[in-house]
Amino acid sequence: MRTKLLLGITLLSCMLSSVFAQDPDYSQFYNAPTYYNPAYVGLTQGLKVRFNYRRQWTKIPAKFNSYNFSADIGERNLPGAGGIGIIVNSTRQASGYIRNNMFGFLPSVRIPLNENMIIQTGFLAAFVQKRMDWDGLLFSDQLDPVYGNIYNTKFVPPSDDRVTYPDFSFGTIFQFQGSDNSIIGTLGGAIHHLTRPNESFIGKNAPLARKYVAHFDLIFDFSQSSGFYQKTRDFKINPGIFFQNQAKMNDYMVGMNIYFSRVYIGAWYKNETLEYDQYSHFSLMGGINIPVNGDDSRVKFMYSYDMVINAEHIFTGPSHEISVIFEFDDISLIGGGSSITGVRSRRGYERMECSPF
């Protein structure tokens, strides 16, 4: 009952004031790359399918769940093409009283600078629907101090329980590789919600704030090889930094993932500022890479556990996140490798085309 009361008061306050909403967030941003930067679409050859699930703040009675699905395929047989993809994101907030669903289409353009450097730009055109369950809310005027919920509320809900709008984003990536193939660096940025769509349910002005994303990471490949493409030990280190800003809220993340003999481990620190403060979070990740058809395809499972470091916010509890990723390197849209029509003809990969981590 207390949860519904707080929820009703909070939602009513949000509707009657100019409050900026924020996008759902994932600790494993590296496993939901097209969600944060559309330029990741088709960055490497082949088909990639990703599922992400996040259960946030497990000690709070009102559930906050996020689901993300994306699929993209790289295409090099069309001049200037990077790839195409789709993305679906869904959130359930406050035990499902607020639901937000997004479906988007993502194309990308690729500009090779030389054999070691490329620039790629991606775009997102999405359709978004946000729904509110007015009947499930409880307001303060329904409560009696002794008998509890016995009155009818005077609040009159809007005639419509949903808001729909188009949404647009774009991003750019610069990727480079060392001459000995042992280092790959990726620097990128993206701007989301370019047109700042209005999310108000009651005809007020409630524009969705733009989100700005910047990221940089390096992959150091220490894998040992006993012959031509015959690796006897896989060992890679992937440090990185990630920044996003939306509605005056900043998020900084710094950390590292390690890949060794089909196993992933990682640790990331997240904060609102560059100094330690109340919002500090620490995330631990573990996973496994399972080959499906030799080195051409694989399935990756990763789990992360997010904990709040500062004692003042420990009441929210930890968060859990799961990612499942399918990668098929030898699939293409037009000609080459295994096309989506089932025609298969093997070909060697160019540099910077294989999935690096």
Low-confidence stretches: 1-20, 338-349
Structural class: mainly beta
User: Could you tell me the number of beta strands?
Assistant: 20
Please give the order of strands in the largest beta sheet. Answer: 1-2-3-4-5-8-9-10-13-14-15-16-17-18
Largest sheet: 14 strands, antiparallel, barrel
**Helix share of residues?**
under 10%
Number of helices: 2
Terminal CA distance reads 47 Å
Over all CA atoms, what is the radius of gyration? Answer: 23 Å
Shape: globular
Order of helices and strands: HHEEEEEEEEEEEEEEEEEEEE
Mean pLDDT, as a whole number? 82
Q: Please state roughly what percent of the residues sit in beta strands, choosing from under 5%, 5-15%, 15-25%, 25-35%, 35-45% or over 45%.
A: over 45%
What would you say this structure looks like, in words?
- It is a single chain.
- This protein is mostly beta strands and 357 residues long.
- It has helices at residues 2-16, 33-36; strands spanning 46-56, 64-74, 81-93, 98-114, 117-132, 143-144, 148-149, 162-177, 183-192, 211-221, 224-227, 230-233, 235-246, 249-260, 263-271, 281-291, 297-308, 319-328, 331-332, 338-339.
- The protein is built from 2 helices and 20 strands.
- The chain is globular, with a radius of gyration of 23 Å.
- It starts with a helix and ends in an 18-residue tail after the last strand.
